Fold:
Amino acid sequence: MVERTSLSIRDLAVQFESEQGVVRALDGVSFDLQAGRTLGIVGESGCGKSVTARSILRLVDRPGRITGGRILLDPGTPAQADLVALNPDSRQMRAVRGGRIGLIFQEPMTALSVHYTVGNQIMEAVLQHSGASPQEARARAIELLREVGIPRPELRLDSYPFELSGGLRQRVGIAMALAGDPDIVIADEPTTALDVTTQAQILALLRGLQERKRIALMLITHDMGVIAEMADDVAVMYLGRIVGFAPVMELFKAPRHPYTRALLRAVPSILAAPRQRLSTIGGAVPHPGLRPTGCAFHPRCTEALEGRCAREAPPPIPPGQAGASCFLAEAVA
Ligand SMILES: Nc1ncnc2c1ncn2[C@@H]1O[C@H](COP(=O)(O)OP(=O)(O)O)[C@@H](O)[C@H]1O
Ligand SMILES: [Mg+2]
Structure:
């Protein structure tokens, strides 16, 4: 089934400028989000995953700045809008935030206040994005809490966030993200702060909601296990670029980028011998201000081509196509 493209990111570039110089946090990022599908975005810490999420919602704060590219909502339709062209504080952008694109944070308290009850905060979010009456907003808040699997929602409405467990609090975070009935949801490491059992429950909840509401979900994680569980397609990020893109099965079966292979080797496998040491990727992600020449991964790459990868940058992957931004992948393609 051909799905509707909800969001198209093209050649997105974001820079942070400081006295020490210019940091290119994102450099030519392109991908699509499709209704009813989950795009997993994976990469080590510092690769630009959160900056991508915040850029889409126009929440990148100074000294950060979008310096190029387009973020097209409803691309190819008469309603198409380029979010890069909007003022982050405009009415239109505030309506997009929450109303079209919901955001789920790693730490739900980012979106919640300690001073108000859960019910007040969800009702407020409902009212912001609809013409509901206070009574309707209250009914909707109860319905949202029920949808995210919170038992006895009528009573929970009066709880303060600090009275809830981490898992319940993240469920409230999800309810907040859904309060404006968005058709696109961005979840930035939504289960990283949770224990494994709760993590599995929250992922199951997210997947159920995504499927039922045909949401275009962008799921950010550093965890290939979460990717395997959740994603339809996967974009692998390294130092502000997408270096690998593929449907999830293809990515796991035949990873084409050495960085993707390294990330996969670092995943605990049920097939691995019990005490076998988990492999890790040699070296660390360099600071984006100290971007290596050529292919940015070459200093850590065990397969780098002598004389080439340090000098030449492999071309980006055309959006929507499976592939790897790597000279080695070109050879086998
Ligand atoms: N507020 C900021 N000020 C300066 N640089 C930043 C800021 N936020 C992010 N960056 C830069 O952008 C890079 C990517 O960050 P981020 O998107 O948060 O990575 P992650 O993939 O871990 O989510 C960081 O390594 C950092 O260099
Ligand atoms: Mg992050």
